[in-house]
Design a protein that fits this description.
The protein has about 250 residues and is an alpha/beta fold. It folds into 2 domains: about 5-60 and about 125-250, HAD superfamily/HAD-like (Rossmann fold), CATH 3.40.50.1000; about 60-120, DNA polymerase, domain 1, CATH 1.10.150. Helices cover about 35% and strands about 20% of the residues. It has 9 helices and 10 strands. It has helices at about 35-40, 60-75, 95-100, 105-120, 130-140, 150-155, 185-195, 205-215, 245-250; strands at about 10-15, 20-30, 50, 60, 125, 140-145, 170, 200-205, 220-225, 235-240. An 8-stranded mixed β-sheet has the order 1-2-10-9-8-3-6-7, sandwiched between helices. A two-stranded antiparallel ribbon has the order 4-5. α2 (about 60-75) crosses α4 (about 105-120) and α3 packs across α4 (about 105-120).
Length: about 250
């Protein structure tokens, strides 16, 4: 795996690359060696399944999650600046609360989820996700979700957008005893899709997603539209926005 600044190929499809440099007015995607070999050999991309993280990738929940957590912490007399809580994005809630020294994790998670639901009106689908899903359906490319949310949390937060039925292969944190960055959830998803790791792409926004993909032997694409610390997350591909994936899909089907 490579840090974005080390990627050997830069193909422009958007406005800025991973280093923030202007690349014209069409978009930007960075390709790492593990995927670039397909172009070098003159072959089409061979991804048969594209798996998505949820928070920070499909839906914009960052502010809602942090605001809701702050309410939980304040009730227990704990105070943290928002930036000190970024680590909770992408890992199970009980682990996040344990790291924050919360003892009554079950009660705190229930309260956290209640606050999230009260703020649910502020959760948004990232621009272009619906069009990307439509494009994947049109090309008959299998889709999956691997998330650190529970099934209920996924249903509560993502379900209202009416897209869950478009993902036949979903693995949540309560479906399996291991969680990201362990590779098991991603491998379980690919097993469900009957797709080998070398023919899959995982799209996420955190280091936990990148490490999960690497451990599973799956190419990783960084969702630049939701990532908090791009320079610290190794990736095979980098996208500024969801629609930057479309030119690659044209080479897959």
């Amino acid at each position: 795996m490579f840090q974005p600044e080390e990627l050997p190929c830069h193909i422009c499809f958007g406005n800025k690359d991973v280093n923030g440099k202007n690349t014209g007015n069409r978009g930007s995607v960075e390709l790492g060696k593990s995927t670039f070999h397909c172009i070098e050999r003159g072959e089409r991309f061979l991804y048969e399944c594209i798996v998505f993280d949820v928070d920070g990738t499909l839906i914009d929940t960052e502010n809602v999650i942090i605001r809701a957590l702050q309410l939980v912490l304040e009730r227990r007399g704990r105070y943290f600046p928002d930036e000190k809580l970024d680590f909770v994005l992408g890992i199970p809630g009980d682990i996040s609360l344990s790291k924050l020294g919360i003892k009554d994790c079950a009660g705190a998670i229930k309260e956290w989820n209640e606050h999230i639901q009260n703020l649910a009106g502020d959760i948004q689908l990232f621009d272009g996700i619906d069009l990307l899903i439509e494009a994947l359906d049109k090309r008959k490319i299998s889709k999956g979700i691997v998330t650190s949310k529970t099934r209920k949390e996924l249903s509560d937060d993502f379900g209202p957008f009416g897209l869950m039925e478009r993902f036949p292969h979903i693995v949540c944190v309560d479906d399996i005893p291991f969680h990201k960055p362990h590779p098991a959830p991603l491998l379980r998803c690919l097993e469900s899709a009957s797709v080998p790791a070398r023919l899959a792409l995982y799209i996420g926004d955190t280091i936990y997603d990148a490490e999960c993909a690497r451990a599973a032997g799956v190419d990783f694409a960084l969702a630049g539209w939701g990532a908090k610390s791009e320079s610290n997350i190794p990736c095979d591909l980098y996208f500024n926005n969801p629609l930057d994936l479309l030119p690659l899909l044209d080479g897959m089907r």
